[in-house]
Structures
1.
Amino acid sequence: MTEISIVWGALLVATLAFFSLQCLLSLKMKVDAAYLFAFCIYFDLFAYFYKLAVPGESLILLIGAPLLPVGVALLLKPSIVLETLRDQGIWLWGIFLAYVLISLTWAPAESNGIMKEVVLLAHGVVPALYVYLVYRKYGRFSWTIVAWAGMAYAVLHLLLGEYNEEYPGRLTLPGGNPIFNARTSLITATVCLWASRIPLPVRLLSLGAALASALSTQSRGPLAAFLLANAVYFGVWFIRKFRERKLGKLSRLAMPLLFLLIIAGGTASAYAEQLAVWVESSRFMVLFDRNQLQGDDNYIGRVDLQTRALEKLEASPFLGAGLGSVTPPLARDFPHNLVLEIAAEGGFAGLTLWTFAVLFSLWAAIQRAPVLAILLVQSVGYALASGDFGYNYEYVVMAITALALYPVKQREGVGVKREALVFDHRF
């Protein structure tokens, strides 16, 4: 029965691939790069169902599934390869990744650093390049697609999530980690808050589901990064509107906002006691109580790990100790801070290369798609509180997507205005 199932599965995949190829080549259908972006960011949604049917590593799906539209894009427009090679931002990321790979030559022999880079490439860099190439061919990116995918992810997390002994009181997808569940849902929340041309019902439903999903994980670092990134952008946005004297045009939003505040206030008053009990018993209290923070075992453990990473940096400040030198199996655990990890393993040389790549991508995002700038800051904030070099992939996806959306002629210094490339398109 197993062999028959494999044969039927292979035939089904081949049929779907042939049909898709016909649509792309004969019917000249255009692919929206947001599908690939959502597939990467919400990959846990697809991996969950994939693992139910196919045993083994699910990252092969992330790498293999988009190959057909990417291959067609390259076939129909080979020049996008040259565009990619001329992109200064891509070069900056390539130099940084090459440097950390070279650092393996002076890392301890038992270092497992190569696996960290492979995970980052498979989970972040390669899928982001898929988005880059497809967008360069078709010029389509719809945030509505991202919002729909984010809603599906949040609903799946809320319906199928579980409370297990490893993460007591924290809703987690089976086999997952509540921190990464929260990080993913809060990306959806930011998209719904700031991205343009998302239908209001989709925006509100996705925002509500994403916030419920994120809060149910009781993950503090992702929430703090989300609040900080959005607060900074809101301040910048408010100042810009004030200078442009456009705040008067926003007055039409006063009544809807007042109505929502009244409803929220009434709801909070009705459930005040339950909310107070929930807040006081939740893990979020450490964000408001310094004494609780300093007594938190998780916080104390991470401070110790980060202190050890700083000691590695002091021992080899310029080149670092080599990729993988501050993470298992050489260390008990990783420092849960990407900047410290890169500095300890790549030295100030590696940290400088990383900083240039991030800042260049942030500049491109600010120029073309501010929501990506918020997401980049937010995902870097995630990386400062959890995860390691390999599994902190979201910021790389945001960075390379920002490079894709930045027009080639503007990147080359030619002041030519182009049609709006980021819009709402649905098949």
Note: The longest helix spans residues 338-368.
2.
Amino acid sequence: MNVIAHSLLNVYKLIGRDDKAGLLEFVPGSDAHQEYGDTLNVVLVYTQAEREALEEIMVSGSTAADVAGTVKVRYLGFDLPAEKQQQLLTTGVNTADINSIYYVNGPSENTFHSEATRSVEPMVIKMQKLPKGGDYDWIYGFVKAQVAQGIGLTPHDRNFYLAAKLYFEPAAITAEEDAEMRDGDNLKEGVEAELLRLKEEREDITAEEKERAQALLKGKCSQCYALLEQALQDVGSSMVKLFKKNPEQLAKLFMSVVSFEDRKLGVDGKIPIYLDLAGYLHVYMRHVKEMKVEKTFEHKDNFQWAEKDVLMVMENVIMQVEDEVQRHFEQHPGKRYQRYGSQSVYYLGDYYNLYIEPDGRISTFFKSKKKRPVV
């Protein structure tokens, strides 16, 4: 363990640069001591501009930040009330109020300083499907409980809920739900497709229904083809051009589009925060190296993550702001939520900008370009 005296610069060097947890011990009688007590266990919080400025100072050898000043921190304990935790994030503490900092002097490397692509080694938990679609019983029960609790569902999950209720509890369907799932006398295609998929898994489907399921799948493929064609044109390509240039990449793109279903990234909010197919294509074809097909967006920073891990990163970023997003839509219905520039969200060495539409759909999500200090 180490104990030291402080300035903005050495606080950054000790625990801020590598996102180390630190126990701050305050000077008796100081403002921070009176507000928060003897000690706080925290992680320092910087905007990208603040971090880059401190990096430049370190490289240049300047003493510009070798003075006391305010640092914002995220509290790691459980005892402080929510308003004081928020105060630490917005107002922070003055380093002049810090008597000592205790931290573990172990190896740590903040990936903010790295340009390498990272990946996560997954922990695979094998599960065995129940025969004849038996898992749909508990899946429907889970979604039904979410609806009862007022938790928002993505459009795809809502289609599944209506289809499963029609299958398991047709007598319990309300007049509002019946109107929602129908287009005139017929089921809407999204609900019908989910119902037929459920019936096929349950081995409770007729030959005529199988034909209808195939027709719906063919229609979905046509819609996906059109969406992908538009997305390719938006980045300066087309299905024909990409087929001539890289048919394997086109096949991979098309399969990923056909198999894509709305991905919910929030947990339990009234408004579902999710990525739909249009958002997926917009984000991935501009900011994921493996899915870029032309040089139109080569100037944009790629995610420094393997393609398979990008959704995990998005989920963790959304997790940090979900409560704030829900409050925003409650207070400003119909107004888009956005975090960008100095308000971008920090996660594992990178700063992310995002726009979320009033229905919870993520329309834009990208990593801020980093300014590298001149050595």
Note: The CA atoms of residues 228 and 254 lie 7 Å apart.
